[in-house]
Amino acid sequence: MQWPGVLGERAACSLLEQVLRQSPADETEAALVTTSQALTRFAHNTIHQNVGELDAELEIRAVFGGRVGMAATNDLSPSGWQRALLAACEQARHLPANADWPGLPRPGDQAPQDALPIMAFDAAVAEATPTSRAAVVRAICDQAGGQQLLASGAFGTSYGETVVANTHGLIAYAPSTEVDLTFVVEQTAEQASAYAHAAGWQLAQLDVSALTSEACRHARAARAPRRLPAGEYPVVLEPYAVGALLEALAEAGMGALAVQEERSWMNGRLGRACLSPELTIWDDAFDPRGVPRAFDCEGVPKRRVPIVLHGTPTSPVYDRLTAAREAGRSSTGHAQPYDAEDWDGPLPENLVVTPGDQTTAELIAAIGRGLYITRFWYVNLVSPHDCAVTGTTRDGVWWIENGQLAFPVANLRFDQALVEALAGVRGVGAECRTVAGFFGGVHRAPALALDSFRFIDPS
Length: 459
Hints:
Largest sheet: 9 strands, mixed
């Protein structure tokens, strides 16, 4: 079946081949991404908006003797891509040569490591309609309304394709789908709210009933929160909160460019046990429980990368440019689209924390007095060298007393160096959740129990 907005492998590859044939550059790369996105928004148990968008972007890189120009367009007509090709070539001719330029990848330059067949396309997602999304939202709102609670959020579905080709003969094609469900259930008069989120590439990854039941239970239990003084407390973090910390670790230096520029929390710690031996983190683009990806934006196959093994940072992720700066290195398939204003080199997009063997209830029971935290919000990097971050709790915090949830707590602001906090992991949950990150990645995170986390004032 042909879905609107998807060209299909033959037509997409044919388009890029036309672009490459007409290029006068020494090397040329063309990358096409098509997307069809739809979103159903709801507030206070009522759907108020349904939106949809079809788009396609063609990005062209032209290289003359190490001088690299780039241009992009969403006009796929011959005149449209010809203008973009001309602009990329003209830009390259006026730029200085990049001494580190490794050249565009060639077919077979590197075989994928631990590669598995990847087909992250779910026809049920591609065929989702406003009516089918509304049925999911109605189930959430009916369940919340039946308990005198209000649900607000959004349910999005998308599908598309990515194809990369260059003048060395490399060509890579993959279709994909994604789903994202995010909502908050609240008792507005009681200042009580709870968060729910699920992401993935297939509808079967969303357990809507279980998510809603959990959010309603938390919203009812969060009434009349009490204020706590600033201080350092043991914490149990739910996967939503852990996902936010994973994103901060990635932003602060899980990519090779940050390490090479000595602005990463990994600098001085690679190969040294500085985190808890309970903690192992991979970047795994092959995990079907997340959102698998076969290759990066250069068409280089993804690799499964061990970033932290039993508390020891082992390696950042690489693209071709950063790998060329280190003898014996090759790309791990983590190149990011270049943006002159906001480009930070290769980044992990499929982080997975190896789960432990404890339930969340067991993690809570092991803490005499401390905090149980559902979610962090507005997490910002303060210092990259220890991955110090600040932010607030949101949508559910409880005080733990004698290993039991005693009472809800008002939101707190935190200021914490994550390297220090993650050295004190005392327990890892057995169940991972798939959570979408703020910067575009989709990660797998369990609950974590930490010895100490620093809160500076009520939020």
